[in-house]
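To the wet lab folks,

You asked to see what we're planning to order before we commit. Fair enough. Below is the target structure as tokens, and below that is the sequence we designed to fit it. If anything looks off to you, flag it before the synthesis order goes out.
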């Protein structure tokens, strides 16, 4: 392992520069190379952030560069093949959400990482934000009693022009688009964290975009003991991105839960208490990857792979209710 972590990036799209900057901010490593299917995209990223080496082929980057880890930042449909490629080159991977298109692909990636004894994690950055860490602590110490209910909406209006929709990452079935895999995955991961298990019953309703992916959906999860989660995702309507966790002895409200810096806890007979936390950002998840690599761990105890697989299983169940399949599934 190098003194500073040497990262490669696969996928030179919109999120790649954000990762590049966050990694720089950690002071623990840097992106030394990036690869795209298109040399033009790779060079555009290089111009924007100043990466040393860029490639128009993933394999060429993996062969020529001495890397400690690879960040996979392609559209959802490619995560499975990109992750397997890197693992087969003997490299640890941080894979953007949604981890893969479905549970089966997720299990194959997880199995391969296990066989190769290599670190693998879903880039569920929200899980590592200080406010989220604080929420886990509060729940674990019983600050709001037993959690009975979660409400979490992730609905953002972002309408591309109708002409470009079939090629847009969000709208394209071929690219495994849809609001569920793009935004709903955060709410579902939140529910998985709050309840510590997958739901035993799932019901839902959805509206589909003309391209064949979900654009607005509501889903209701049931857990043993009458506990419930009511979640939604949309990329055609805007809703407050608030999470409300209701326990038997109090309520935690998290404004803008995917990137929270603050939370408010309300308990009977006490004034509401607002807790300010350190700023959110990709830096926290990146430091976790580095910590795991230094300690020789092949998965993070904070975002373990079995949870990623459960999240994919829940999303498969929702898509099955909607009769929604991606091409080639
Ligand atoms: N954590 C977050 O806050 C956050 C925010 C936004 C997105 N994301 C996740 O990050 C990943 C990438 O998102 P993005 O917004 O960066 O996506 P993007 O800019 O649309 O595309 C990323 C890359 O995916 C491949 N790709 C996209 N559309 C393609 C097409 N039509 N044909 C062939 N390849 C295509 C390309 O890879 P190559 O360059 O290698 O060819 C492209 O550079 C997704 O998993 C997304 O869910 C995370």
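Sequence we intend to order:
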């Amino acid at each position: 392992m190098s003194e500073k972590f040497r990262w490669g990036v696969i996928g030179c799209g919109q999120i790649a520069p954000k990762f590049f900057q966050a990694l720089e901010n950690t002071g623990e490593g840097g992106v030394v190379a990036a690869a795209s299917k298109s040399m033009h995209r790779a060079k555009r990223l290089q111009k924007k952030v100043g990466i040393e080496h860029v490639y128009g082929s993933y394999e060429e980057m993996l062969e020529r560069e001495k890397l400690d880890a690879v960040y996979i930042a392609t559209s959802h449909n490619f995560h499975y093949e990109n992750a397997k490629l890197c693992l087969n080159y003997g490299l640890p991977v941080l894979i953007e959400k949604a981890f893969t298109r479905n549970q089966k692909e997720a299990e194959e990636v997880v199995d391969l990482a296990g066989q190769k004894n290599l670190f693998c994690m879903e880039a569920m950055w929200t899980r590592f934000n200080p406010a989220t860490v604080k929420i886990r602590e509060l729940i674990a110490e019983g600050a709001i009693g037993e959690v009975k209910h979660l409400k979490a909406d992730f609905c953002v209006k972002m309408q591309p022009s109708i002409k470009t929709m079939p090629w847009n990452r969000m709208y394209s079935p071929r690219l495994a688009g849809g609001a569920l895999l793009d935004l709903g995955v955060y709410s579902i991961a939140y529910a998985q964290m709050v309840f510590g298990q997958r739901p035993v019953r799932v019901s839902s309703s959805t509206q589909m975009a003309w391209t064949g992916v979900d654009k607005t959906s509501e889903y209701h999860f049931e857990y043993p003991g009458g506990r419930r989660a009511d979640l939604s995702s949309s990329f055609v309507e805007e809703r407050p991105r608030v999470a409300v966790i209701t326990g038997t002895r109090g309520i935690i409200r998290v404004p803008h839960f995917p990137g929270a810096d603050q939370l408010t806890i309300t308990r009977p007979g006490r004034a509401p208490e607002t807790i300010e936390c350190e700023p959110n950002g990709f830096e926290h998840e990146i430091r976790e990857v580095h910590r795991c690599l230094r300690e020789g761990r092949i998965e993070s105890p904070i975002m373990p792979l079995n949870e990623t697989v459960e999240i994919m299983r829940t999303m498969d169940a929702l898509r099955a209710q909607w009769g929604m399949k991606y091409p080639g599934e």
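Structural context that might help your review: Residues 305-322 form the longest helix (18 residues). The mean pLDDT is 96.

Thanks,
Computational group
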